[in-house]
Design a protein that fits this description.
The structure is a single chain. The protein contains 4 helices and no strands. The longest helix is centred in the first third of the chain and has 32 residues. It is elongated.
Length: about 120
Amino acid sequence: MSRAGSGEVSCPLKEPEGMNTGMVHWLWLLSYLLAINILAFILFAVDKRKARHHGHRLPEKALLFPAFLGGSVGALLAMRLLRHKTKKPRFRWGLPLLLLAQLVLVFLLLDIHLF
């Protein structure tokens, strides 16, 4: 959509006044990370509840996938607070290593100024 006579194209996802593009990217990233960590925590809680009530459990892949996508902090918090999957090596060692790898990746990306 362009304004009559101005030659400008308007964008429906325009950043708020006074915010630069970098800040908008950070807000999107933080919003995504918050959402994926909440999802990871909720999935662990659901699986723990099903385990207690002998219900149909979630596959381990369903618990690990959100952690892989950036929700490793939420998964680790749920694992510790709910005492769920703490004896399984894939979770006990895998989630902390995944978080460490994600942190290294973030620092590498920051070092080459991709954010």
